[in-house]
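Quick entry between incubations.
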Amino acid sequence: MTWILFVSFFVFLLMGIPVAIAIGLASFIVLFKEGMPLVIMAQRMFAGTDSFPLVAVPFFILAGDLLAKGKVSEKLVEFADAIFGFLKGGLSIVAVLAGMFFAAISGSGAATTAAVGTTLVPELKKKGYNEASSAALIAASGTIGVVIPPSVPMILYAVIADQSVSRLFLNGFIPGVIMGLVLIAIAITQAYRRNYPRGAEFSFGNVWNTFKEAIWGILTPVIILGGIFSGYFTPSEAAVIAVNYSLIVSLFIYRDMKLKDVFEIITRSAMTMSVVMFIIATSSILSWILANWSIPTAIASGILALSSNPYVILFLVAVIVLIAGVFMETASALIILTPVFLPLVDELGVNLVHFGLVMVVGLAIGMITPPVAINLYVASTITGLSIEKITKAIIPYLLGLILVLLLLLYLPLVFPVII
Amino acid sequence: MQVVDFLRRFSDGLDLLIKRIVFLTIVGMIVSISLQIIFRVFFESLTWTEELSRYLLVWSTFLGATMAYKRGMHISVTFVIDAFPSRFKKIVTVSSIVLSLVFFVISINFGIKLMTVQIFQISPALRLPMRWVYVGIPISFFIMLIHGLTAALEELLKNKEGGGE
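Done. Structure below.
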């Protein structure tokens, strides 16, 4: 039965049937063959989406889309440039920092790549930075978008694994910052090797002026994350506050948007979110099947019979997650793999918040590994460079991020730092 | 082809309508949760806002999925079939749409069944008959059926033209 489920799923998937529908069809075949009441399908699709924590998904996507469209990312980039632009290769540092900052507003990697890329690419070109390398750096910084909170994949994981969204968010900071620092370190090495120019001389006046301009953007993460971590708002409420705030900023303060644009942006992000939520819906039929026939438990005991060393098994899991990230999009891979791995890591005594971070960082890396690599596609669209060119340039950043994943995998096992 | 023409217009018209409804569901969630926050902070907590936004999420998920389906936005693995020769690729594409249509028909059928099974169920806070919440699922799959049928016929016609040249 397990074989029918997985084989039919992969056949449907490779035929080009959308992931959500492929999951639904494979689940249908199993339920039909086992003579289960098929109304379960509709029931599970409803139950899978009828969830208040998931309400945060559309709104963190929407808030990011609203701010990416307007002047906020431009002002943030100018502010970061005023602080670090004077260094050699300073614009690379600005690219990563802007990515990290935007990550604290948006919950998706593609939005982060788009926001930073659209503003910075012309500037990088003008200053004579290597084009492929800059595009790769922006795509790589985009992965931080789902690691620094808020993060759509973290919400999905929290709902599937029954963990607290806030705790995942809180623990996402340090890995996200380390990812940024590693990328900056690699970028600076390249800046010295390629002899990149320095930007304008550092001046406090300039920093202050750009800070004043960027203050509305800088306040966004303060409001979102401050609200969640103080326990004053639930993540879903904070997401809606972020949307209200971005609407006010773009309609009345920067005035870079008209009401008509708002309609377009809202309907477009509704489509983006329903792509993810539709997978959630049909995969809750799948997870019902998995649970009903104890398939993950069987997989867990099969693997544990081979080895019960948590270091070895976590390594294997990380490798599978990375490979899944090469061929699958982040949310779908997360939704499918989480219920399969949970009993295994739980049995090993691994903290489930820690495991969530491993999943999210591992799949975030998948955003820059082709053929399925959303950030590379966004960067390629913005710069007009081919995927092949950017892929070659991304290798050093990719290795750096994999190093961070390994640290994240093992450090919390040695030092229990998960809050 | 008259049938295809009609289907195409029907599919486009439905999409235009759904786009507005989806906009309203999202705005509805924003208003409902904003009210929830305002009332909790300044007055007394409202009991119905959370339930309403959950149901609006269900509706916007499935209705939004119809829009994403029409625009080919749903995540799928394309690099395998892209490697096939074009004639074979067309056969696989059409059969994958047909298989999707099968899933839509199944979901319409059992979505309606869910409504009739739970005919007397009423939501706890809003006192809303649950069949009005569930009905969003079969409606959305019906719309996807129309979009998918249109896409399949268009793909087939393209196939014929390609063969005739």
